[in-house]
């Protein structure tokens, strides 16, 4: 049977929220967000307040994937830090309510930019928005994980070692064709791994402009979204993830900046963004950046391979888009192989 990721049992949700969410009266509307491929996400409208419900997809899932409980925990922990997040309300781990675990958070109104070119935004504000993205990233990596109760949010040891191992296994579990560049990356990322420099911070795991909500009028971030891949790890993985995204083709499919006249658009170069981040954190120039970039291309290839596999199995959150992004697996893999050479 094909799992239904497009609808919610509104009666079941309403009954649960009336019992567990203070101030909840009734639903006046439910709308599924079309963005994102992993955890189906819904806008819940009520007479007094709007919420967001984010759930695990139904069906058989890869082990450790779709961890909504971790998303809920990390955003709760960041509530009083310099990292803007939505207010968390409740976590339901009882699959019998709607068929899978879910959590409820505030709906954060504002602007969301699917493309870094930010059409319709002034040249000056584009630069300010990207600088705010840089500020939030640096703030994320300066969070005192002991003080916010996240010291145990990820295992000890070399982050890249365990991540390459994890995503290699995930990729193999969802592999649908032989891609030589991915085979090469899985070996080379082990062989060329830099020595651990001791940095151990909270990392988002999918830090991109389109995973952020900005104020409707100001270049100010109001919430960072989609924390499914967050863990305790190495901050340069997040930084390189931003640069990886920007190196993809411009437009709705690649959502990158390749070929754009960044200066004319008010957008920084890769080097300027990295320098601003290092200045904010008091860091010297970053060595082995090609490795961190290659790692991100590899991990993204593994992620979208999983998206493709879910589409083929009939339980993707957005099946049509899943099939489209699945075509990027060999492209990301080749970009990763090329980054390792630089």
TrEMBL record:
GO molecular function, one term: transferase activity
InterPro entries: ACAD10-like (IPR052898), ACAD10_11_N (IPR041726), Aminoglycoside_PTrfase (IPR002575), Kinase-like_dom_sf (IPR011009)
Aminoglycoside phosphotransferase domain segment(s): 30-256
CDD domains registered for this protein in UniProt: ACAD10_11_N-like
Keywords from the UniProt entry: Transferase
Listed Pfam families: APH
Protein name: Phosphotransferase family protein
């Amino acid at each position: 049977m094909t799992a239904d990721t497009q609808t919610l049992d509104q009666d079941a949700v309403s009954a649960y929220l009336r019992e567990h969410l203070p101030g909840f009266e009734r639903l006046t509307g439910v709308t599924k967000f079309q963005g994102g491929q992993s955890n189906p996400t819904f806008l819940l409208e009520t007479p007094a307040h709007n919420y967001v419900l984010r759930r695990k997809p139904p069906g058989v899932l890869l082990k450790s994937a779709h961890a909504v409980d971790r998303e809920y925990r990390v955003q709760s922990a960041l509530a009083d830090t310099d990292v803007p997040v939505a207010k968390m309300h409740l976590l339901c781990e009882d699959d019998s309510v709607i068929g899978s675990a879910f959590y409820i958070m505030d709906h954060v109104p504002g602007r969301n930019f699917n493309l870094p070119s930010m059409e319709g935004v002034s040249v000056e504000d584009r630069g300010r928005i990207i600088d705010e993205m840089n500020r939030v990233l640096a703030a994320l990596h300066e969070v005192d994980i002991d003080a916010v109760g996240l010291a145990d949010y990820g295992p000890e040891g070399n982050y890249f070692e365990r991540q390459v191992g994890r995503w290699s296994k995930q990729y193999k579990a969802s592999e649908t064709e032989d891609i030589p560049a991915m085979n090469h990356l899985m070996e080379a990322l082990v062989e060329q791994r830099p020595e651990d420099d001791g940095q151990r911070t909270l990392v988002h795991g999918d830090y991109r402009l389109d995973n952020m909500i900005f104020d409707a009028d100001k270049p100010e971030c109001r919430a960072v979204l989609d924390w499914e891949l967050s863990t305790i790890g190495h901050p340069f993985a997040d930084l390189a993830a931003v640069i990886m995204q920007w190196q993809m083709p411009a437009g709705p499919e690649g959502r990158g900046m390749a070929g754009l006249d960044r200066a004319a658009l008010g957008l920084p170069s890769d080097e300027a963004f990295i320098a601003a981040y290092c200045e904010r954190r008091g860091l010297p120039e970053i060595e082995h950046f090609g490795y961190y970039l290659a790692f991100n291309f590899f991990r993204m290839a593994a992620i979208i391979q999983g998206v493709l596999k879910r589409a083929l199995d009939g339980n993707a959150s957005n099946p049509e888009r899943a099939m489209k992004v699945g075509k990027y697996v060999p492209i990301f893999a080749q970009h990763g192989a090329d980054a390792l050479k630089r």
